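Reviewer 2 asked us to include a model.

Predict the structure of this chain.
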Amino acid sequence: MKETEQHTDKAVVVTYPDEFAKKEIVDLAKAAGYKVEALITQKQIIKSEYGVGVGKAQELQEIVADNDAKTLIIDETVTSSQANKLATVTQAEVVDRERLILNIFARRAQTTEAKLQVQLAELRYEMPRAKDAVRYSVRGERAGFSGMGEAAVDVKFRALKRQMGFIKDKLEKSRTSKEIHIVERRKLGLPFVSLAGYTSSGKTTLFNRLASESKEESPKLFTTLTTTTRVITFANSKQKVLLSDTVGFITRLPTYLVESFKSTLDELTYADLVLLMVDVSEDIDSVGVKLNSCRKTLEELGVDPQKVLLVLNKIDLLADRGQNKIELVPMFKDFSLIKISAVRGDGMHQLRTRILELTRTKKTARPA
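Predicted model (C-alpha cells):
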C-alpha cells in the first residue's frame, strides 16, 4: 500500500485505561490508516478466551455495529484463537498491537532491506499462530486435531521456516556489507554519531538541521525505517563527523521486531556517540514511559550507556521555557544531557560543541 493511499476502515480500539496507553494506541491506529470511531478501556486484556471479558465482548459487538466499524484493534498481543472468537462475536476484523505495528512498518518500508526486515518480522509473528491458522483453514478440524490437520501444521511450519531462512540469508549479506562499510568508515578516522529515540521525538528534524538535509519530517509514527548516514562539518571547526538517523522506538516493542531490524539498529552499537532524543513538551509521565522504553531497547542492543547523550527536544513548546528547569527532573539524573529545539534552533550551538567534545574524546580513546 502506498503512503498516499487512504485506509477506508473505521476502527474501534480497546486499550488500557491510563492516558499514555490511550494516546499511543490511537496514534498507532492513525499511522496505520484507521479512523478511530470509539475508544474502549479494559483493565485486563488477554485474560479470557476472547482476549477481553465475555461481557466486554458482547458490548463490543454493539459498539462495532453502532459505529459501522470494520476493524477492532486490541492494544495487546492476542492469540489467533482469541482473535477468531472475538471476530466471530463482533463481526469485525481483529488486529492486535503487534499486527498493527507490523502494518505500519509495511506501509513505511521503502528500501529492499526495510521490506525484507518487515517480511521477517511478519513471519516471526505468524510462527506461533500457524497451528490455529491451519485449524481454521482445514474443514471440520477441531482443537486437539491429528492426522490431516497435524500434517498441514507441519507443512505450514516448514514453509514458514524456509521463508525465514531465505530472508535471513539476504539480511545477513546486507549486514555483512554494512560491516564492511563500517570498517571502511573507521579507516577515514571520522567519529560516528547516531540518533536514537522514541518514534516522533524529532530525530529526523535534528538530522536535517545538522546535516543540511531534507529527509521527510512527520508527526506520524515510524517515518524513518532505514538508516541514513551523512558526513557533516561544523562551522569554525575542521572536525568532520558521520551522522546517522535510525528507526524510532516504541513501548512494548516485540523482541522479534528488534531482532528483525537488527541490521539497521546495529548502527547504534557501532556509534561513538548516541544522541538519545526525548520530546519534553509532553506531560512528565509520558516522558518517563518513553525514556524507560528507549533505555530498555538500548540495553537489549548492548549499547554502552556511557556513550549516550540525552537530548531534551522541543523546549520551545514548554510554557515557561525561560525559567523551566526540566533538566533537574529526577528521571534525568543519570544522564549527561542538553536542551534543544530542533525546529527553532535553540541550543544547537551548545549541541554542536558537545558533539565535538565528546567525539574528540571517543576518537582519542578508540583503540588503533
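Confidence is low (pLDDT under 50) at residues 1-5, 139-148, 363-368. The two ends are 47 Å apart (CA to CA). We have added this to the supplementary material.
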